[in-house]
Backbone:
């Protein structure tokens, strides 16, 4: 089911590894021509354009974008008690982890009378996108909302596609999760038109303002990613998320039942999802193939899983040693990386590029998806080489506050003048010397 790449004994650079390793290919550029007119129409006509595109793509005619508060309350009161309890545990653990991420303001006395303070200020308003396509993601409500709330963001709007089977509202479990988190504003909008409305704002059908946001976060399909790319600058974005991916670095000590189950768990998301096993053991790879054949047939979304596992984005990579495996997974920079080797903690400590690392036999990715306390909105497509997952820092801006006395400025005035003249910007120096007339 999984194709194989044998890298044993082949010395390769990180760039060469990235060229041969399996990877989901999502061409955002290829859909920009489709998304650009949607973004332009929403910028020009607001909710009217959102209604038109929602009817076209979601087969729903929106009577209004903003979900009434009564629907949030109703969804929460109707929520399965077991699901509510699980969501509450998810929220508790996420808050416990993210509450440690809030930075404190720091003041440095550069010289007597001269200080620079770095203030951390939350953005004023954020739009949190929650997908609603092949699956329902109340956990993504938690992962987006919790860090924004801890950052101190005062105004939040959750945006999720309307569902025809629920009367043009987002899925009721999405609404219930928002209500649990005391989010008061939810928009029934999805896709590129939702991102455009978040960025530009508008006026709802009842005349109420739909205020634009400062940053849009949350995963979505290629059209959501394209809209984010087009609107970056007008608003900040977290990332252009691609299909989910898991890499597992395993040796002969790994249990093939666990490895197969974890590869399947990510393949379940999407036919384009990537599941990659990097192993020193051909015997393990063979055993995993046997387990996949058994487990895939028994899983609910077996067609989707089989497509993902059989795609060119998934496969087994054979390596000569764990050291070589570390080099391979660092080059791959997976969204989710599991370490299932002897001395897994020590191996995990050597990894430099991954969205999140899951250590040992009892830390599967699905734990992180829901109840580890970590955030599951993570960089995909190799972006973990340079980017982090969603956190409290995503919603904070660092502002330097410079406070110098007359004497502190006088002390360094000549250096400012010298550097200004060196850059042929004499007025910069004169802005200092004007304060000290001879």
Residues:
């Amino acid at each position: 089911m999984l194709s194989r790449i044998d890298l044993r004994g082949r010395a390769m650079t990180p760039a060469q590894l990235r060229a041969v390793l399996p990877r989901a290919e999502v061409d955002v550029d290829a859909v920009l021509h489709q998304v650009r007119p949607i973004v332009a129409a929403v910028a020009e006509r607001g909710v009217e354009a959102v209604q038109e595109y929602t009817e076209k793509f979601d087969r729903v005619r929106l009577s209004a974008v903003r979900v009434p508060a009564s629907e949030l309350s109703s969804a929460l009161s109707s929520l399965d008690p077991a699901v509510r309890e699980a969501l509450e545990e998810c929220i508790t653990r996420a808050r416990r982890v993210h509450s440690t991420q809030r930075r404190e303001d720091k003041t440095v006395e550069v010289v007597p009378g001269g200080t620079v303070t770095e203030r951390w200020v939350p953005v004023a308003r954020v739009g949190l996108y929650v997908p609603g396509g092949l699956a329902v993601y109340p956990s993504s409500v938690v992962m987006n909302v919790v860090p924004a709330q801890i950052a101190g963001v005062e105004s939040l709007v959750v945006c999720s596609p309307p569902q025809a089977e629920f009367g043009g509202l987002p899925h009721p479990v999405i609404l219930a999760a928002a209500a649990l988190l005391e989010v008061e504003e939810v928009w029934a909008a999805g896709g590129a038109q939702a991102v455009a409305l978040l960025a530009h704002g508008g006026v709802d059908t009842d005349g109420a303002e739909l205020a634009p946001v400062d940053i849009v976060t949350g995963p979505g399909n290629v059209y959501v990613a394209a809209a984010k790319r087009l609107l970056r600058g007008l608003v900040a974005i977290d990332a252009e998320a691609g299909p989910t991916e898991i890499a597992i670095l395993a040796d002969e000590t790994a249990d093939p039942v666990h490895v197969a189950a974890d590869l399947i768990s990510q393949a379940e998301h999407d036919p384009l999802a990537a599941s990659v096993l990097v192993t020193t053991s051909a015997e393990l790879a063979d055993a995993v193939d046997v387990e996949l054949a058994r487990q895939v047939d028994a899983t609910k979304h077996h067609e989707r899983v089989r497509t993902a596992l059989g795609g060119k984005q998934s496969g087994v990579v054979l390596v000569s040693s764990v050291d070589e495996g570390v080099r391979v997974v660092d080059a791959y920079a997976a969204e989710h990386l599991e370490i299932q080797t002897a001395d897994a903690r020590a191996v995990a400590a050597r990894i430099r590029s991954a969205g999140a690392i899951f250590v040992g036999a009892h830390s599967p990715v699905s734990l992180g998806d829901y109840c580890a306390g970590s955030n599951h909105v993570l960089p995909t497509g190799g972006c973990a080489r340079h980017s982090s997952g969603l956190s409290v820092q995503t919603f904070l801006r660092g502002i330097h506050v410079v406070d110098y006395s007359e004497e502190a400025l006088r002390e360094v005035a000549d250096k400012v003048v010298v550097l200004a003249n060196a850059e042929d910007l004499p007025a910069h120096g004169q802005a200092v010397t004007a304060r000290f007339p001879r």
